[in-house]
Amino acid sequence: MRTGCNGSVAAPIVSTTSASTAPRAPVQPRGRSGRYSWRRCLQRAPEEMTHRMSPIFRPTRLVLALWVGLVPSLFALAGCGSPGAVDKRILQHLNREGFGKRYHGDAQEENYVTIGDTIQYIDLRNPKVRGSGEVDIDGTILFDQAGAVFVAGMTRAELETFLTQKLSPYYTDTAIQVAIKTGGTRSYYVWGEVASPGRKRFIGDMTLFEAVIAAGPQEHTANLGRVKLIRADPTDPLVITADVTQLWRSGDSTYNVRLKEYDIVYVPPTLLKQFADVVSAAVVPIVAPLRSILSTVFYINNGGRFGNRRRF
Asked: What confidence tens digit (pLDDT) does each residue in 8-22 have?
């Protein structure tokens, strides 16, 4: 009796050749389980095995399915997976120095011109040459006989030299003096557990303690022992963690550092406040709809009136 690849009984084969001349079929070797091995079966009847396989696992359909599924993924990974694929236009706009302002420096060491400042100038040798002007958004002011000149980013010494050069074609002897009046654009920032967060005007000679007290730290939620002073920079940022309570507890003013323009002061919450925020974030999404449902039920039970009772 002849068996198939799965051990089932196969139909008998009827041969038209005489028994004397017909070649005798070789005996197939059996595997350990007593059935014919898969390799022999595949060599013997590949079309039978392909017919028995599920349509989704047929070789041609399997390859087609893999191709349709993997090719779009490969294109997506090639487009956004590598750092070199970053748009070059974005790289041109990234900050490379300081806080991110176009004109920057240390105004407490040497003042410099920014947008909104007022420039006053006078020529001591030619008193008729005098005037003032506000720095426009493009960084220029109107200067006598020279027209619009670019002055943003210059220090006072640099500006005096520059204006002297502009007057040299008209006067042989000049002595320009310049005064820079800050227009209020220099600022610092306070954030966190304070009553008045946000942008603050920087007037100079201000310490970390003064900035925190001016912002009004919250009495029960502000962690004054972990106040952070952040001086942002793309390559060398500076973060100082200071305990401002030492100033009134022991008189230690070591970490009462001086602020610079565009510094960030962050007053973090206490551990109890952080825990309360986590609980609130988990409970509020559940309580808010529940309050609405209870209010609606109470309203219906009272005939459409809340009466003198308090709402939920």
From this structure: 555 555 455 444 455
pLDDT in the model for residue 44: 54
Domain that holds residue 53: 44-83
Q: Is residue 109 part of a domain?
A: no
Residue 206: CB partners within 8 Å, gap ≥ 6? 188, 258, 259
Percent pLDDT > 90 in the chain is: 32
- Our count of domains for the chain comes to 4
Our CA dihedral for 159, 163, 168, 169, rounded to 10 degrees, sits at 140
Same domain for 170 and 122: yes
